[in-house]
Structures are given as structure tokens and as C-alpha cells.
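Model it.
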Amino acid sequence: MALAFIGFGGNIGDTRQVITDAIVCLALRRELQILAKSCFYQSAPVDAPGGDYINAVVQIETELSPYGLLNVCQNIEQAFGRERPYENAPRTLDLDILSFEGVSQNDTELTLPHPRILERSFVLLPLLEIAPDFFLPSIGKLKAYLPQVANQRIEKLPCRNCNCQENKTYSQSSH
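Modeled.
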């Protein structure tokens, strides 16, 4: 069994509900188990048009290969109407494998760890919420990269299933 982290995001429709439903679809798979789920975060798009995104990250344990997990993620995206009219287009649902235990690769179909994991507050903050000491061998501790994304607008949304005491807006001064 391998540990993996998957990022969920979208900015079309009732994104919180879509992500919640997509996580349920993932949880129904026999080949994996969800170990942790972050709260939802609302963030401004980065290098993309459209409205704010809602994002979350889940930690799973799986017997699937990285490509098997990619296939599951793409099937879930399709089930929720994901279209890819152009790069970084607004979307109903996007699932990204952020990290897959012990795998480092760079090919056209799947790059691990995710190539922009350090550049996006909407990835780093929910990931570090559920794995505060997350470490990648070629990169180091991810929390060291928080100052690099501190200028990106992001807000942790309240939810029932996490330790969200209040909304928190992250800014340069909070890091």
C-alpha cells in the first residue's frame, strides 16, 4: 500500500458539493482508503480566467499504481462533466495527484510530485493542514515554501468535519 495525496478543485457550479460528492466517489473504491481530508479553501485563480476556486486535499492509502490512480481520478472528473476546452479553463472538477509515495517521475501523462505543488497556496495550505510536516526528498519540508505563496489570496472556509474555528484569510503578514 502506498500513501498518496490528491488535490480537488473547481470553480463552476456548486463546487463544494461537487468536491464532496467526488470525495465520496473516491472513497467507494475498494483499492484505496481515505485517511484524511482537509477543510475547503476558496482562492483566487492563478494564471487562469474565471471566478474563485474551491479546493481541498485528501490523503489516501492505495494498492493502485500511480497510473491506476490517475485513471480513477480522470474517470471521476468525467463523471462530473469535466471538459478541457483549453489550458487552465474554468472547470467543474479537477483532481490532481500531488504526491505518490516513493515515486518521482516526469512524463507527458503524469509528473510526480505535481510540478506546481510549491507554487500554489491552494495546494500547500490544505496539504499542510492534514500533513503539517510533509517532506519531499528532492524538495524538503513543504512548509518552508509558504512565504513564496503568501501573496496569493486564499480563505479557509468553515466546515463540519475539521478543526476550523473560524475563517482565516492568509496573507503575507500571516506567514
